[in-house]
# Entry
Amino acid sequence: MSEIQPSKWLKWICSSKNLDELCENYDRWAITYETDVGGVWEPVPLAAALMLAEYIDDKQCAILDAGAGTGLVGVALAELGFKQIIAIDISSSMLAKAVAKGVYSSSLCCSIGDRLFRNLKRVSGIIAAGVFAEAHAGAAELLALSEKIIDEGVLVFTARQSFLPQLQEVVNRPEWSPINSKAMPIYDDPMHLLAYRIKKTTES
Ligand SMILES: C[S@@+](CC[C@H](N)C(=O)[O-])C[C@H]1O[C@@H](n2cnc3c(N)ncnc32)[C@H](O)[C@@H]1O
# Structure
């Protein structure tokens, strides 16, 4: 996939027909992913980690990097001093790259919301960068992530402007409080970086 324009690889990966095909495509892409996304995507993982760090002082607490990919968010979190970073991803090849970075305390190959995911413990913070998009993850997965957060924990995620309406119903829930947002003018469809504090109700 190298030497392909960002708009092309974005279109290619987002046209995967289902999660199995998405997983196969990421498995194939793992070797050149960082080179391919490099220039345009580079500021996003760091911006996401910095946003989370604004609200979580305790660097020993558990942070979940959901859709960790090759580990760019994990590296940024580790540079900010976080010690307990958990990586999950559906693609074993992407996850292997992430694990090789040596910054994660544990990793799990799973899909957000599946049986393995449901066994994960709750964490203080979650980052999902580049995960909420066509053919990747949507409202059900966003809700599943919020269920893995402790009371008053923080969830940071990205979504392109055109995808935000699909997540609106979840983020409008009373337990969700918006605490930060940043629009990043990458791609023709701007990328939004959003942070929410999640309050737990007695049932959740
Ligand atoms: C665009 S990459 C972003 C990787 C990394 N977060 C970054 O910022 O470079 C999206 C990653 O999310 C993973 N992914 C997509 N949908 C997923 C899902 N439903 N559950 C778990 N992982 C998913 C893909 O396998 C891929 O590694």
